[in-house]
Amino acid sequence: MKESRIFKNENVLLPEYLPPVLPHRENEIKQLAQNLLPASEGRKPQNTFIFGPPGTGKTASIKFVFREFEDYSGIKTVYINCWDFRTSCAVFSKTILDLGFMVQRKGWAKDEILMRFVEIFKKLNKGLIICLDEADQLEQEVLYDFLRIGQYVNLPLGLVLISNSPYIFQNYEPRIKSSLDIEEIEFRPYSLSEMKDILMERAKEAFFSFDNAVVLLAANHAVKKGGDVRVGLQALLKAGKEAEKENGEKVEVKHIRKVLSSVLKIKPRILEEKVSDVEKIILKILGEKTMSMKEIYENYCKEVEKPINEKAFRNYLRHLSEIGLIKIRKRKVGRERLVSKTFT
Ligand code: ADP
Ligand code: MG
């Protein structure tokens, strides 16, 4: 295999790569660590809810903190992505497995799994922090069960919930949020200059040689496409490949200019997996606007050849609201309901 003249280490441009430092998230990381650290001294950690748009370093930050915690013998950490584990049975079985114990999922009732978890937690006899990432995908029962378990064990148990949408609690009973005593940390989108710093660090690790303007263009593109760092990383990766293809000495402006138009906004998994065609049209119509249900329906009827009836249409709106992609509010005056997208 020929060695690349361009890439020192291509892998650092992959979104899964966890860099040694996370520029411009120092405060959020400090706050997170402070919230969770009491668990190492047998005290109750502060449950935390992290939210903010995609690609702003939410997952990277908790993984960063958990990696640091590996050195604290007093804390065990478990990271779970709720796309893959949604129910109480799934979440607590996964936790048991990650703690290094066996669990039999088939044939076990939920309460048996929960009790098995309690038993293992006691055996562990350490503070435990569970991170539930993409928490908008969770079944409601999980948080209730989490609270129930707290009553059985006298050990520090902490929860970190992460979601793109700040509204994940809107479908829960109000008391759940106060019972969990959740502190919120908002991850704001990066500014252009912050994005540039972040991508610069990655580019230095990834390439032997590059023009600084390449990073600036990638950062600008990422900010324009909604502020997702992954867009910038993909632009750098593609520019590097282009430089290789042209047999260049380094990554230059001409390379990134050539690939930028092919680097698109990264679609959230929810849009790929959970959203029907009608719903995709609704989201497109909405764009960044706030509209009444009636207006959306009228626009939809113009858009498609064979529109479904209004009642069926409203069910789609309700589903979009349930999965947290849109927010439906009552207009202050009158009965009409207003709809807007939450994020994405
Ligand atoms: P989120 O969970 O908010 O959608 P991620 O944490 O998955 O976003 O971040 C997406 C990508 O951007 C990852 O590759 C991550 O390493 C990188 N990233 C995000 N913020 C930073 C940062 N401040 N410094 C370095 N890399 C970052
Ligand atoms: Mg994430």
Strand and helix layout:
Layout: H1 26-36, E1 48-51, H2 58-69, E2 75-81, H3 88-98, H4 110-124, E3 127-133, H5 141-150, E4 157-163, H6 174-180, E5 183-186, H7 192-206, H8 212-224, H9 229-245, H10 253-259, H11 269-273, H12 277-286, E6 290-292, H13 293-303, H14 310-322, E7 326-330, E8 337-341
Parallel strand pairs: 1-4, 1-5, 2-3, 3-4
Antiparallel strand pairs: 6-8, 7-8
The structure holds adenosine-5'-diphosphate and magnesium ion.
Would you give an account of this structure?
- The protein is of the alpha/beta class and 344 residues long.
- It has three domains: 161 residues, 3-Layer(aba) Sandwich (Rossmann fold), CATH 3.40.50; 65 residues; 74 residues, Winged helix-like DNA-binding domain superfamily/Winged helix DNA-binding domain (Arc Repressor Mutant, subunit A, Orthogonal Bundle), CATH 1.10.10.10.
- It is built from 14 helices and eight strands.
- A five-stranded parallel beta sheet has the order 2-3-4-1-5, sandwiched between helices.
- Helix 3 packs parallel to helix 4 and helix 9 packs across helix 10.
- The two termini are 41 Å apart.
- The model has no long low-confidence stretch (mean pLDDT 92).
- Bound molecules: adenosine-5'-diphosphate (ADP) and magnesium ion.
- Adenosine-5'-diphosphate binds next to helix 2 and helix 9.
- The site of adenosine-5'-diphosphate has 17 residues, from helix 2 and helix 9.
